Amino acid sequence: MPLDTSTTYPLTKLRLDGRRWNELRLLQAQISTNPASSGSSYLSMGNTAIMCSVHGPAEGRRGDASGAGGSAGAIVDVEVNVAGFAGVDRKRRAGGSDKQSSRIATTLRSAFQSHLHTYLYPHSTISIHVSVLSADGSLLAAAINACTLALVDAGIPMPGLLCGCTAGMSGSASTPRDPRHDELDPLLDLSLPEEQELPVLTVGTTTSVPVGENNMDDEEGDMKVAVLTMDSKLHYTYIETMLAVGMDGCNQIRELLEGVIKGSSRA
Amino acid sequence: MMADRRRINGPPGGTRPAVFASNSQSGTGATTRAQRQRQPSELRKIFLKTGLIPTASGSSYLEFEPSASLAAARANPKSLIPPSSALKLACTVHGPKPLPRSAAFSPNLVLTTHVKYAPFAARRRKGHIRDSSERDLGVHLETALRGAIIAERWPKSGLDITITILEAEDDRWWGDAPDSHDASWGMMNVLAGCITAASAAIADAHIDCLDLVAGGVAALVSDESAGSSAAPKLMLDTDPAEHRSILSACVVGYMPARDEITELWLKGDSSKASLEDGDKRTGHEALIDGAVDAARGAHTVLAEAVRESLLSAVGQL
Amino acid sequence: MSNQRQASSASQVPHLSPAELSYLYTSLSLPKSSIRPDGRSPTQFRPLTAETNILPGTNGSARVGFADGTQAIVGVKAEVEKTVLSNETVDARSEFGISEDRGEQEGSAAVGGHGSWVQMSIEIPGFRDDDALPVFLSEMMRESLVGAVGSAEASDMTGGLKGRLVINKRWHWRLYIDVLLLSQPLSYPLPLLSLTTHLALLSTKLPKLKSQGEEDPFFDDDWAVAEYLYPRVSLSSAKHSARSPFVRPPVTLLVISVGENIIFDPNREEIAVADAVLAISITRDSEAGNLKLLSIRTVDPPSRLTQPGIPNSENVNMLGAVASTEDVAVLNPATGEEEVPGVWRPRRGGVKRSVIAEMVKTVLKKGGVGEEVLEGLEGVEVS
């Protein structure tokens, strides 16, 4: 019997790594891991491990600042490097970055460029360096979380924590959803084998009010989606479920990250 | 990076052609391994001439005399495969010229070295893009030359040194199994040639130097006729094709006037050297001294070539 | 930018003024007792933190961090690969009945391994893969790794690392060593990278082989029985050489000379005033227990690219303000050049042979720096 989610999940209601549909993988994080940078973080979600370091805000390189965007506020510069040993097979890298890492870099750049209060730092550059040490699914989501932690560590003002999470469906979901007879479950925080096989979307959300000032009543109302990417094919009737699950995962992750930040400030 | 779509690339895996080395070995004994016929401290002859490329501000051409066995084999060919190769390289120097506007300010002359094998230089074809060994050679060469050039006399200027290797030294005898050893001993001879040729070209370009840097190679070779038990011997200017087993080798860039080494690259096991009785030197010291002696030999040729080019320049005036 | 990259074989030149450089040089070159900016003794290394086996997805991994925040992570991955040997040659020769002697030589690649089976790539932020610095560093470290051939005593490591990678005549391991520097190098990154690689290789495990002889290899699924790439000798056999319990990968040390002093593990400021920079690779000879030299390479000292200072006698602004007697050039015994004391001159020329010999001796001698470093590394728990 092939070991994949779409055949085993309906029988056991357990995913390949033994999680239920709404469970996150073990999330461990640490900030201020690298004293040489302005801010740094280490984050692992299951077997996905990412180190992130932030330099700046600092004066940009010559030539960069000549652009019109440079004068108004800080430019966020993201570099993503997937280590050769990150995957199962050692990947041959030819001449720097590949498609996947440059896509993640572009998404991160646009997300944080609009998320951070860049207007406070005109004529400067905030450079973020993301190293993927071990890749096991949800790379973009983990990178968003790691960047958020590193930026908090660097003390760069932002309205709320930007947290990312993935959500998928437990089958190919190509036919319209039948609300009375739901066969497919949405899945939270996908690992690499699930990600390769099932439809998946990555969602990143943020709150507009700083941490701690949240009123419990309208917490839901404050939620903003900052990142949303999906490249798999899926019937549109499922999107809403997946999005809801993903955003719920973001909330869980936000609580975990807040714990990390508060825990380290006490120490 | 994506695959190069502008060229038609071969299949990625590729196959290896059969090497019928043994055919030529049957009976005649024509292709026995070349034997070194020089004394241990005798160098090969070097041909060095400067100023061959009129468009460059300085240039030189260097050629090592082929080993005696090669000359014999060429005169009386028994196999289509040349038994050994000898170094041939050309060096051009462009500059000093102003640095590009975008470059950062430099109070000194900025040296850029490019070492490139011609595709046909070695027995195995080299690609057009520089590989890591060529870049490595470039760094070695840069280190060797930067120590000699008086760089602060040209602030904000750049100097490009380009070396094209037309024929490279073999790393091993061609009759040995292709994979019998992979240490690139031939690369060290190439580096020594590069250093000598480049300093001739720099002198030809009238760049101020402390001294002419000459390159020299020495190696510890275990003598095969005496069996493996015999202690390795020190030889100067080794041709890797002539020896079965080179234990360690050393290349230096050396300035005789100051008795200083600008570049040193030593590798291999030098601990078992057999030196004469009463010689207190350790293996690596003897190896470095040997390489320096080889470099002194190359320096005489270098000085003569530079003097020749100077005299011809004076004659033209 | 590209020009700077090309030239920066010895890391970036820090922006120190000629006066600072001169001050550093003077304090470092004090006869017999150099004063280092961070108060270390000439042979003392910077404190570091190290951990191994941090990445479960690799065969072996290590992280080393210096106190100044520079960190390196090394991951080692091994893959099984078919040995591409010119089998045709072998067959043809045996048909023609070539002497045994030659036949032995044929198989030597299958027995002795091949250096290209060890691949090394170094990732340094701000540099491209094919820039001079990463290429030079990886060639330097790979050369000593591949070159270290063990003695006959150590059963599994007879052919050194590359011999260990041979599975049988047709199959072998290919080892990928990926070095990741997590921040822009603050000093010449060689010591950091070398130590991290050393630890990562020590913690590297290969799955236990279940097939025998010339069969196509298959391996035990149980990771718990996997064998170390650098095998540990059992306690009983280690007794006779208690000092070196098992074969260890080589280490590369960075040594500089300033004046007549020899200084180890230089930081960025120290290397900026060095007269000569040498990278020396050593390993422990498992037979005799003493140290063995594997390779030496000169590294281009950044001091050659620094800005010179101007003595008062040549400074127009100071004209007449200073008595000319203050600016007498003195012969510097280390460089053999006339220098005005306290005025920085970029280094020129090379290094004397005696200095090289002294550097190597300091590393190799009994109780020397090499032993100290290896003993320090042996203290790191490798799980």
Global mean pLDDT of chain B: 82
Instruction: Write the element-wise H/E pattern of chain A from the N-terminal end onward.
Output: HEEEHEHEHEEHEHEH
Query: Could you tell me the radius of gyration of chain A in angstroms?
Result: 19 Å
Query: Oligomer, anyone?
Result: heterotrimer
Shape of chain A: globular
Largest interface, with counts of residues having CB < 8 Å to the other chain, equals:
B-C, 70 and 63 residues
Task: Provide the domain count of chain A.
Answer: 1
Q: What is the CATH first-level class name of chain B? A: Alpha Beta
Which structural class do the helices and strands of chain A define? alpha+beta
Helix content of chain A: 25-40%
Task: Please name the fourth-level CATH homologous superfamily of chain A.
Answer: GHMP Kinase, N-terminal domain
Estimated share of beta-strand residues of chain A: 25-35%
Q: How many individual domains of chain B?
A: 1
Question: SSE string of chain B, helix = H, strand = E?
Answer: EEHEEHEHEEEEH
Q: Can you tell me the residue ranges of chain A where pLDDT is under 50 for at least 5 consecutive residues?
A: none
Lateral arrangement of strands in the main beta sheet of chain A:
1-2-3-5-4
